[in-house]
Amino acid sequence: MTTALTYRKDLFEERGLDEPETWEDLLHPDIMQDLALQTPQAAVGLAAALSINNARGGSLGDVQPVVDYYNEIQEGGAEFTDNFLAQFSRGEYGSFIRYDYSGLDLKYNNDDLAEENVGVALLGGENGKAGAFNALYGYALLANAPNPEAAKLFMDYVLSIEGQQHFTDAYVRPIRAPEMDLPDEFPPQSRYDETEFTIDQQTLVEQQEDIIQKITRGAGL
């Protein structure tokens, strides 16, 4: 799952806005005014914060770049909220930040919106910095499982190319995506390569509560 911006292409075109390529592009007044995102207490909100922070030169030990960014976009009208999909469909929000699959599913599986009116963009930072956090999703075998060999066979299938293909049906980019020919609905692999980054999960788990507190306090969330 990779952090992405989903936006109303029709509204952007009406406002004379190009497709965003960097997080700095979202500081345009006509984008900030109706941008929606979630606070870092939510996993997807933390992923967004880490994306922006990395793109602006921050680190797990320095989250001031995203704090400054959040303060600026709030002054411009951006809102932190958990409920924005219906409003996005009605045009009340022009863009929102979530994972790529959320935007792709909305683009191709929503009867209220024409797919050509929805764009999904992976954003980077200035000077080519990566700005799209790739959030890993755990897959585990339970200790003392009653049928461990059957479970291993199932895990083998899920991790096979055939099994991985099922994820793409829901617009989720699986772990073996670089080995696959993804449907045309996905952003090009080259864009993922340009913008995507990961973080050591153990380090993140150890520091995330402190990170969340620093961001929420600093940005008044």
TrEMBL record:
Q: Which Gene3D superfamilies match?
A: Periplasmic binding protein-like II
- Origin, by domain of life? Archaea
Q: Which UniProt keywords apply?
A: Signal
Query: Which Pfam families did the record assign?
Result: SBP_bac_1
Identify the stretch annotated as signal peptide in this record: none
Task: Supply the name of the protein.
Answer: ABC transporter substrate-binding protein
Organism for this UniProt entry: Halorubrum coriense DSM 10284
